[in-house]
Amino acid sequence: MRYDLIIIGMGLSGLMAAKTAAEKGRRVLIVGKGLGSLNLFSNTVDVLGSIPKTMKIREGLPQWMEGHPDHPYSKLGWKRIEEALFAYTSLFPSPYSFETVGDGNCLIPTGAGTLRPAYLVPVTMVAGASLKEGDSLIAGFEGFKDFQAHYVAHQLNSQAMTLSLPEASHREMTATALARLMEKESIRETIGKEIKKQIHGQTKVGFPAVLGMQNPFEVKKSLEEIINAEIFEIPTLPPSIPGMRIFNRFKEWLIHRGVTFLLGHSVSGAILKGKRCERIEVFQPPISTSYSSDRYIVATGRFIGGGLVADQEKISESVFGLPVSQPRGREGWFQKSFFNSLSHPVHQAGILTDSSLRPVDEKGNRILENVWIAGSILAHHHSIDEQSREGIEIATGYAAAKEALGS
């Protein structure tokens, strides 16, 4: 039960760390009680949403980092961030690739009918990044309450229609159920023919992001051939089908390269000796099993992932009991107004690290020598406001593995 690297957390940062180590031929164990936030929120790769679409990311991000020296990005530098993003995109070759539209952020439509900035976009969403008034038809499905086509279309100055599927008649549909249906050729033919009747000059058709789980590009291509229009996906409420595609791709690739997955199990304890972790305990009912390594990466996320837990007095780290950078008292967690223009201080809580991503205390003293921290559990960022979550997870997961392996 000994490995070259043990990664705790199965979100995007943990998966990137595992990929980076597996490419070096290392024996890797990744432990996670769930899929992180990938299956909830991830659709695109957001690096930093505040960079204008007219500015190149490689120019805008280094400038932004100069004013945010404590941010996780600033510990890495642009060169390593760029390496990490390239490593990520290399896992998604054509036809289901992640692409940039230009060299900066592009604006893609959302399930609320707004436009949001994104840097790397799956090929199934690219056509939505260049909408013009009146050139699109937005299609929804009866029984699928997480996407209201007429509302989205109204916000985007487009036309809308709601499709009825015989297989879904008289029942509520989920995103996963629709994704499976879309992989059936007969369903696509029915949908395509119905949409073709409703098109009046539109050159694009937008669907909720449910164009199949396994072969979304083939679903997109098939519909385009029937309808004779460009197809694009629009992100919806959780669960995220594009996020599930990302997880499934990582899992398939990692297992093929010998990475051991312990999905559905949480770390119940860590055995420390001085400033080193000797092993972790994983509870697999009815027994607890020990796993050891010379190197560990903590990529457990913040509150959703369970990496941070809060009680009435403080926020704690759940695996190693590492000190958490946080407001002095609970009364300082939030601004006086919930919808304040400034982010709530609790969203900056996390683990402090040195430049090599090893945990340190408030004085900068290293706490553990063979543990590295990656992902949203890091302190001094607010990825939701910044629109930087996937970028932080990809870059720090990649960098933590590089640091741990001395490469």
Characterize the structure shown.
There is one protein chain. This protein is an alpha/beta fold and 407 residues long. It has 2 domains: 2-43 and 244-404, 3-Layer(bba) Sandwich (FAD/NAD(P)-binding domain), CATH 3.50.50.60; 106-236, Rossmann fold, CATH 3.40.50. Helix content is 29%, strand content 20%. The chain has helices at residues 12-23, 38-41, 57-66, 72-76, 78-89, 149-155, 175-182, 185-198, 216-227, 241-256, 383-386, 389-404; strands at 2-3, 5-8, 28-32, 98-99, 106-109, 115-118, 121-122, 136-141, 159-163, 204-208, 230-234, 260-263, 267-273, 276-284, 287-293, 296-298, 308-310, 315-317, 371-373. Strands 12-3-2-16-19 form a 5-stranded parallel sheet, with helices on one face. Helix 6 links the parallel strand 8 and strand 9 (159-163). The longest helix is centred in the middle third of the chain and has 16 residues, at 241-256. It starts with a strand and ends with a helix.
Note the main attributes of this structure.
single chain, 12 helices, FAD/NAD(P)-binding domain, globular, 5-stranded parallel beta sheet, alpha/beta, 19 strands, 407 residues, 2 domains
